[in-house]
C-alpha cells in the first residue's frame, strides 16, 4: 500500500511513491496514497512478459545458466533515487479468495526470482561448498519494514551491522580456518 507520494523537483511527468520507506519513481498521477500495488524489490529478476517490456532497454539480463529476464537495480531519475518497481494490481490474475491482501507474496504467481550474480569462471573451484552448519543463519529485517512496530521496538537491544555493495555475507574463523560465505 502506498504510504506517500512526493513531488520530484523540476519533473513534470514523474513523482516519487513511498512504500515502507522504499522510494520508487512512478508516472505522475498513476498512483494515489493508499493504493494497493505490486512492489518488486531491487535485485528481482522479472520474466520476459509483455507487462515488463518497457524495461528491456535498461534491464534485460541473460545469465550463463540460460535464465533471462529483467533485473531491477537502484537507479536515479531526475536526481531521485528509485529502489524497485511498482506495478498496478491488474498485472495479477484474479484472486480466487477475493481481493489481494497487503503483504501477500506473489513472486511465484508472477514468475519473479531473486537475481543472483553469476560466479565468474575464474572463481570456479574457489567456491568450497554449502553454508557451514556451525554458523547460525540470520534473516535480519530491513528497518524500512518496521515502521508499524517502532514504538514497541524502542525498548529492544539491537545489533548494528553494515551492508556493503548490496551483498550480505558472513565471515568466520572456526578451528583455525577462515571463510567467507554468501547469504545462501
Euclidean distance between termini CA atoms: 30 Å
Q: Which outline best applies?
A: globular
Summed up, the helix count is 3
Strand residue percentage: 25-35%
- What is the element string, with H for helices and E for strands? EEEEEHEEEEEHEHEE
Q: Would you tell me the structural class of the helices and strands?
A: mainly beta
Low-confidence stretches: none
How much is the average pLDDT?
83
Q: What composes the largest sheet?
A: 4 strands, antiparallel
In what order do the strands lie side by side in the largest sheet? 6-7-5-11
Rg, Cα atoms, Å? 19 Å
Describe the structure.
The protein has 184 residues and is mostly beta strands. It has three helices and 13 strands; from the N terminus they run E-E-E-E-E-H-E-E-E-E-E-H-E-H-E-E. It has helices spanning 56-59, 107-110, 150-153, and strands spanning 4-7, 14-19, 22-27, 37-40, 44-46, 60-62, 68-71, 75-77, 80-82, 85-88, 113-114, 169-174, 177-182. The chain has a four-stranded antiparallel beta sheet. A three-stranded antiparallel beta sheet has the order 1-2-3, with no helix packed on it. Strands 4-10 form a two-stranded antiparallel ribbon. The longest helix is centred in the first third of the chain and has 4 residues, at 56-59. The chain is globular.
Structure in a nutshell:
7% of the residues lie in helices and 29% in strands. The chain has helices spanning 56-59, 107-110, 150-153; strands at 4-7, 14-19, 22-27, 37-40, 44-46, 60-62, 68-71, 75-77, 80-82, 85-88, 113-114, 169-174, 177-182.
Amino acid at each position: 500500500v502506498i504510504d506517500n507520494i512526493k513531488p520530484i523537483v523540476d519533473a513534470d511527468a514523474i513523482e516519487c511513491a513511498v512504500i515502507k520507506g522504499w522510494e520508487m519513481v512512478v508516472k505522475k498521477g498513476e498512483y494515489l496514497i493508499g493504493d494497493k500495488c505490486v512492489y518488486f524489490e531491487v535485485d528481482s529478476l522479472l520474466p520476459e512478459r509483455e507487462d515488463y517490456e518497457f524495461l528491456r532497454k535498461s534491464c534485460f539480463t541473460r545469465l550463463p545458466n540460460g535464465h533471462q529476464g529483467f533485473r531491477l537495480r537502484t537507479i536515479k531519475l531526475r536526481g531521485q533515487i528509485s529502489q524497485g518497481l511498482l506495478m498496478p494490481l491488474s498485472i495479477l490474475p484474479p484472486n480466487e479468495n477475493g481481493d489481494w491482501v497487503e503483504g501477500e507474496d506473489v513472486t511465484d504467481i508472477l514468475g519473479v526470482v531473486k537475481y543472483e550474480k553469476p560466479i565468474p569462471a575464474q572463481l570456479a573451484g574457489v567456491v568450497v561448498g554449502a553454508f557451514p552448519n556451525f554458523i547460525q543463519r540470520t534473516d535480519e529485517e530491513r528497518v524500512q519494514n518496521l515502521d508499524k512496530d517502532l514504538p514497541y521496538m524502542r525498548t529492544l537491544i539491537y545489533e548494528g551491522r553494515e551492508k556493503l555493495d548490496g551483498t550480505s555475507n558472513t565471515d568466520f574463523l572456526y578451528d583455525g580456518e577462515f571463510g567467507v560465505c554468501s547469504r545462501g
